[in-house]
Amino acid sequence: MMKPKLLIVDDDDEIRTQMKWALSTDYEILLAENRAGGLEAFRTHKPAVALLDLGLPPRPGDTEEGFALLAAILNADKMAKAVVITGQNDREHALRAIAAGAYDFLCKPVNPDELKVLLKRCFYVAQLERENREMQQAIGDGTFEGMLGASLKTQEMFSAIRKVATTEAPVLLLGESGTGKEMAAQALHSRSARRAGPFVAINCAAIPDTLLESELFGHEKGAFTGAHVQRKGRIETANGGTLFLDEIGELPALLQVKLLRFLQEQKLTRVGGREEIQTDVRVIAATNANLKSQISDGKFREDLFYRLAVVTIHLPPLRERGDDARLLAQVFLQRFAAENRKNNLSFHPDALRALNLHTWPGNIRELENRVKRAVIMADGKRITAADLELIQVAGTERPITLKEARESIEREMIQQVLQRHSGKVSSAAVELGVSRPTLYELMEKLGINRE
Ligand SMILES: Nc1ncnc2c1ncn2[C@@H]1O[C@H](COP(=O)(O)OP(=O)(O)OP(=O)(O)O)[C@@H](O)[C@H]1O
Ligand SMILES: [Mg+2]
Q1: 364: CA distance to ligand 1 center in Å?
Q2: Rounded CA gap, 319 and 372, in Å?
């Protein structure tokens, strides 16, 4: 795990050496001895926390260089946590530093234990703030009809929805379970001209075959035993709006024929009825099954497939959505923490790492459930990998296939190297020992965003 970076600016050699010695097990220490060096180190390495001596050369006798550096650091990153070191009983400068935006101060001689506690708190607050910022960003830039995600693949999916929503074309949504098919169907509806009309969903797999026909098409009184009254089906109920046919791959052969006829003419006949009823319904279907192979096995009608799949939208699995898992986890955490009145809950770094490494077979639904459970179970302020029931260390997690294991390691490495090179693909490619086009291909395949 990478250590957090700590910048120490002090003109005294001995103090720098002592500090480095005392703190380097917990932090990656960056040292500087004057204002220019300190600012340069801060700009290059972007440490979350800086420890500043106020008396710096060329004016070690007063505090002006120190205050100038403090201002420059906060100017470069207003979220930086700066701790200033003042002389003994030097309340005046301590107060001035706080007023200028320093996070805290310590008096000379610095007590190492006190320093360690203070630094720990600084990094903790810095992390909370960063998480919060990431979350706000995800909500701000990423949100689309209640769906979140900033990764390239997610954004492409949003723009596909945006594009076809306003057309009348039937849409087929394809995606693994928990990828947001139902949410996407609702987004298509709420962005269409039919938004004021009804949105009616029916899960073809959840209703027994014998009832599905009358559920979809309705029935007349006396159509079958138990049909005491006339009933409209879901298609009619959706008149003027959108019908969402979930798990369309489970539709029995006879109903496939009947649905096809309806799609061709927008007309239907209730079970046991003779009258043809004209409707105005837009159909959106979804499945996580491979319809193409069902077609070649003779289980799904090809003509129906082409009627339904005038437009096809793929909902990418969560493992291909780059950093979305982390962002979604943060948002879900805030949501469930608020619902459970558990304020100040945040993820332990091992949990964030585990989130990145997990392959999410159940996709967003799985993520949501894991976070929900963890919020309920968490004792302290931090949610750990164990609370999420994820295994914390890379390599000990047993991936489902070799391919997934390889991809998970590739993703982790590429993200780290890209981060080190501030998103510069060419130099990251050199470090990773691959060509630039290959790295682009890998990023595309693994759903990695340059940012
Ligand atoms: N992009 C997203 N942002 C936030 N929440 C999402 C997103 N996509 C899905 N969800 C949430 O994940 C859960 C699963 O979504 P949904 O039911 O739409 O998926 P699905 O593909 O229909 O799943 P299934 O195949 O299990 O029926 C829901 O609770 C939904 O609110
Ligand atoms: Mg669903």
Answers
A1: 6
A2: 19
